[in-house]
Amino acid sequence: MRHLFAHAINRSLYFLQVKEIALVLLLTVSLPIVVHLIPSTGNVPIGAKLLPIFYAPLIAALLFKPQVSIFTALLAPVINHGLTGSPEWNVAIILTFELFVFVLFILGIRHYRLKWVAGPLGYAVAKLFSVLLVFMIPGLLERGSPVGFGISSLRNGIFGVILLTVIGIAALAFAKKRANQNEWNK
């Protein structure tokens, strides 16, 4: 009976991809912390330029079951705030919303041709929706206009968008190579 119960728990954990959620969440939380250790020139934080919090959710949305990227999107900014005090709560709320829209968009297109550019498209869609969110909840943005926020985010994050493109293509190429190897080994 114990063996049957243990087997049921193991199958449930496998189905939920708990290990994958833990790994992706760890990466999503730790990458921004590491990136923010890099000195940044100017007034724009390095994280706003490189967009490191989007890397692991992009890979997760492309390669794993949906719950991996969704849990990560909803938890990572809150955990980052709890651990480091950064981002500030209003930014954490916006970032959580952006990550959620980002992964939902990628989950929606990951089986179509557009999956190769899922990262930049997902970021643009997420930014558009976050601008709408800031319009609907004006207190989220401490200064500036919602449209200005969106435009400056896209402009400041252009290198990060390029990185999202490269990471997405690399993740899909890895998955395709692995699938081909698995097919060959049958």
Q: How do the strands and helices of this protein lay out in sequence?
A:
Elements: H1 2-16, H2 18-35, H3 46-50, H4 55-63, H5 66-84, H6 89-109, H7 118-136, H8 146-156, H9 158-184
Written account of the structure:
By secondary structure, the protein is mainly alpha-helical. The chain has a single domain (19-184), classed as Arp2/3 complex 21 kDa subunit ARPC3 (Orthogonal Bundle). Helix content is 77%, strand content 0%. The chain is built from 9 helices and no strands. Helix 6 crosses helix 7 (118-136). The chain is globular, with a radius of gyration of 18 Å. The two termini are 34 Å apart.
CATH fold label:
Arp2/3 complex 21 kDa subunit ARPC3
User: In DSSP terms, counting alpha (H) and pi (I) runs of 4 or more, how many helices?
Assistant: 9
What's the CATH architecture name?
Orthogonal Bundle
Kindly state the number of beta strands: 0
The level-1 CATH class: Mainly Alpha
Task: Outline the biggest β-sheet.
Answer: none
Radius of gyration: 18 Å
Termini Cα gap: 34 Å
Number of domains: 1
Query: Which range does the strand content fall in?
Result: under 5%
User: Which residues form runs of ≥5 with pLDDT under 50?
Assistant: none
Brief summary:
The protein has 186 residues and is mostly helical. The chain has helices spanning 2-16, 18-35, 46-50, 55-63, 66-84, 89-109, 118-136, 146-156, 158-184. α2 packs across α5, α5 (66-84) packs antiparallel against α6 (89-109) and α7 packs antiparallel against α8.
